[in-house]
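To: structure subgroup
Subject: Chain for Friday's discussion

All,

I'm putting the inputs and outputs inline so they're searchable in the archive.
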Amino acid sequence: MNSHSRVIVVSVITISLYSAALSASAQSRRTQQSVSEQRAQQIWEQAVSAKGGRDRLNAVENLVISTSGEYARAAGKKTQSELKHFLSFRTRFGDGWIIVRMYSA
């Protein structure tokens, strides 16, 4: 076998090994993603169950999210603030979202 033929054979073997490694890596990522998706689905179902089931969650019509905190202004003065989000999922116009934000400082 001349040196040109050896280079071709080595190149073909290298490409084949690289292709096999890429395929195995892709399969491993798909398996890991599948396991992660299954775990996420289990956690989701546990959360739904902990909140009383799908029917109870689907019956929610309004939701309030309230946050408060303290922040410092540029002059160093600390200020208290509060932010409330009122969410209505069902309106007189049909299902949808109405979001009202109230801010107080």
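Points worth raising on Friday:
The mean pLDDT is 77.
The radius of gyration is 29 Å.

D.
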